[in-house]
Amino acid sequence: MSMFRSLVSLCPGWAVGLLGSSPTTIPEEPPLAAELALRLESEGQALWSDGNIATVVFEGEAERVSAWLGGELLPLSPIPDSPLWHGTRRYDRLAEGLLSYSFAVTTEGKSHRTELHLWRGSEAPPPIGLADSLQGQIHTQAIDSDRLGGAREVSVYLPPTPSETTPPPVIYMADGASVEVYAKVLEPLIFADRIPATVIVGVHNGGYLGEHAPDFSDYDPEKDLRMAEYLPVLASEHFPRHEEFFCEEVPIWAEDEFGVSDSSSQIAVLGHSNGGRFAATMGIDHPDHFGHVIAFSMGAGESPSWDSPPDRKARFYLAAGTWEQRYHSTTQDFHRALKEAGFHSTFSSRVASHDVTMWQEEFAIAVVQAFARQ
């Protein structure tokens, strides 16, 4: 599975319409094909901005094309007598934002997704340094689980140099198929001596039972085992089983196999989207396990409340994009509840959508806050 496919599968069809009302499609007469082709060539990529209007163009023969803009799907219109497809959308403060984009393309009845690209506004924060290729290693293997009643894959990033912190810090991560996304952020920070050599243990999600179209047009929430495992609000029997697997079985295995730390001050839990909700819930419910919580664009659920706040509290770093309005509101409300209860919580509001690049950039800040060298 490609990195993009593993990421975009984390935002199922039910969530596409919940990102918020800020971005809007702009009704207008389609431009002439020649004008569009010239602009496409001059821009050097398939997305550009004019003020707060983003234009996205696909070139190729197809029966249907949609653009993934962050976590939001935009159907494109064909330009008559040309191989071009075109769409526009308005975004507040577009120059300050960033958009990862790709295309869902249907040709001869078969659908596929194209490579992921990035557009960054002229006033957006500068990009962070990402590893082009990892010098450390990612190992994936299935481990047997009594709680799950079967095997589940776990991907582990091991840095290229041993940590001077013994045992090394560890980040337990939801949606473990995306470990490489965060390892490419982590490794330059290790080489820059900003953090100790740190291990990531990524627990794969339960996935989707069966197949779905690339644009999630046939999405069935009853088949979404990932959502059942990550969202406590659903009250699924899968949630407590997965919780025990994630918080008990996986750490014991990782400590035995890789010698990672069992001290909460050296342990973080990480997740994005529904995985972000899961990570935040684990931080609330298991402060003895996880001293740091890194959660982005949190999925559905209520903010925490207590009759009396707990004595032991994890430290939280939360982030969400202003263009994913409901995720942003959910994450911000969670942050406010934490602050009112006396938790140490940071909330970063970014001009972005449900976007992997935004998550990477916020992860760089969060992991330094958690494990910075003293």
Report the biggest beta sheet as strand number plus sense, adding barrel if it closes: 8 strands, mixed
Residue-averaged pLDDT, rounded? 90
Please tell me the total number of domains: 2
Proportion of helical residues: 25-40%
The CATH H-level homologous superfamily of the largest domain: Alpha/Beta hydrolase fold, catalytic domain
Number of helices: 9
Number of strands: 18
| Major beta sheet, strand line-up | 11-12-14-13-15-16-17-18
CATH class of the largest domain: Alpha Beta
The share of residues in extended strands comes to: 25-35%
At CATH level 2, the architecture of the largest domain is: 3-Layer(aba) Sandwich
Shape estimate:
globular
Describe this structure in words.
By secondary structure, the protein is α/β, with parallel strands linked by helices. The chain has two domains: 3-120, Immunoglobulins (Immunoglobulin-like); 137-371, Rossmann fold (3-Layer(aba) Sandwich). Helices cover 28% and strands 27% of the residues. It is built from nine helices and 18 strands. The protein has helices at residues 3-8, 13-16, 33-43, 179-191, 225-230, 238-258, 274-285, 325-340, 356-371; strands spanning 24-25, 47-50, 53-59, 64-69, 72-75, 77-78, 84-90, 98-107, 110-113, 117-120, 137-145, 150-158, 170-174, 199-203, 267-272, 292-296, 315-321, 345-350. The strands form three sheets. Strands 11-12-14-13-15-16-17-18 form an eight-stranded mixed sheet, sandwiched between helices. Strands 1, 2, 3, 6 and 7 form a five-stranded antiparallel sheet that branches. Helix 7 links the parallel strand 15 (267-272) and strand 16. Helix 4 packs across helix 9. The radius of gyration is 21 Å and the shape is globular. The two termini are 39 Å apart. The model is unreliable at 1-21 (pLDDT under 50).
